[in-house]
## 1
Amino acid sequence: MLCQRVFIGGVQDDHQAGPWAGRSVVDGRDDFVEGAGLHGLTDEGTSGTRVFVGNPASGTVSARLTLDGGTVRTAEVLTLPESPYRAFALPITEGETIASVDTFNGQGNRLPHAETYWD
């Protein structure tokens, strides 16, 4: 099991889902699950303060979130020590809407949207 828990203002985003929330089944220490998700405290992460968390493929070094109004936020991809587990997190505040999420390799090239599921 790999546990990924997101907290916003000291409250776990899926606090009502019980002890198994935020966990993925992995096949050993070197397994890895790619994907992304929008986490929030209300309405399945569709309103209020939220966090966009991505688990990108190897070779991804940064992420860029663009909001409808043109504001851009960036995050570095970090790796959990002694594992292949990689992640980034980008905040979205009340009233903001995501226009796009892009990931980039070490040469600054934009990668396909497969990890973020964002077209």
## 2
Amino acid sequence: MEMLESLFRLYAAHCDARWWIGPRPDGPADSVPRAIAAHIGYPTARHDPFVPPGLLTLNFQQVAYVLAVAGTVGLAYGFRAPRSDDFKSAALALNALGSNRNFVANGLWSADADGSMEWTALSSATFDCGLIGFDRDHAFTFWVEEED
């Protein structure tokens, strides 16, 4: 988890990010994301992001992309895709989790978006982007907020 923590520190130095890494909270898998988000004071959004349709379950490639977006790309004023190197760094750091890993995020943040991006807010900010991950033993979250 050291590589993931180093990446979070690097990203957080350049954006308004909240993050946490620690032991996986106890409880069934469907309650773990809420417990992880609570470590950084979320949710603060008007609507509960943990009820359907809420957060999306993502695969490894998708969540690496979302982490690269959250850590390296501005969310306001014209979305752009993260650089290939940023995606590779995110994927490498996320490999710290074991094989039985679970990921959720508030959107896909696709480079293919036609300006109609949709996401589920976890915060009360104008824009937010982030992810929550956990395996049998470890957990983390990284979340970025932006105002226009």
## 3
Amino acid sequence: MAYVKARRGVSPRQMKAIVFVCMMAVGIPLGAWASGSWRAAIMSVELAIFGLGVGMVIVQRLAGPSMRKALVERGQAYEQALTLRLTADALVYDLADLTMNARWSCVTDLYQTRKYWVFLVQSSAMVLPRRFFKTPEAERDFIVEAISRMTDAARARSPDATKFVGNKTDTAKV
């Protein structure tokens, strides 16, 4: 969901940078004022940043196994079959026992991340792993078909997709 939030103006990297800058800009002057020493203030803020980094690594290492355990306790599989279909009327997202249908008029964006294509549907995300495509041509054909069904406004908000397919979109209009 971080990528959905990123489309709203602040990316996860920017959030981390803001936290870092605030720790430095606020922590050092307040530490110097409280301790009377700039050196002690700088050292304490640096150690706090290091501790934050270690904590983030620990949380990331624990999140995967605890998620798998929680799913098993609920009787759900960690990996589930995913199908994303393009129909004339809607984008259909099938994930095991869950099916979501999104009319093309409510698909607002399609953008590419390093490993995924993300369809934004009224602030919800339908995420399609890029590894699902056997060839780059299959991926390109799918994206051409998808953007040909999207509204003009949604296409305008989807520069990743239009750039990815190049000029093929003119021939794929439905």
## 4
Amino acid sequence: MMQCSAPQLTESASPLCTRLVLGSGASQEPFSSTWTWAAVVGLATLAVTTYFSVDQLRKNHRAKEAKRFQPDYDLLNETVVVLDKLAGTAAQKADLVRLCELLSRIKQAERRFPALPFGAVVAHIDTYKKTTLPDDFRRKLTTRKVTLDDLLDLSRQQGAAIAGALTAISAVQSEIDRRTT
């Protein structure tokens, strides 16, 4: 029995060593053009398959992110509707019940996703809450305990706070859209 060693794998390799190392059907000639083209096609296929696999993984990740963010995105949509309703009136504390519920949920979203700018939304809504008209402002107005200018100023501040909140909500939704598409 003949042993194969590294020095034997030269041009003068025995047919038995060549068959053991390269396989039984191997020739001692350089690579054939058929084999080279097959390798190129195989490598191209591997590259394309890898690209599409990575692309699919990225799409799956974005789909999972979209699913995680969807409830908070809907919460912001609902908040926009409530703020639009409040924008048409000079709000009193009694008008803010629904907005306070939404604010609580937005604060929870802020804790869940600190990287998203929910804090700006919370700050603007808190500012809005501080500018509500007193519940008995009609009586105070007639008894001259509060001036009309003070009430108009509060109303203007409410409008500015609503505009700020709507802008902040738009920024958060844009960031969610950027992360999920």
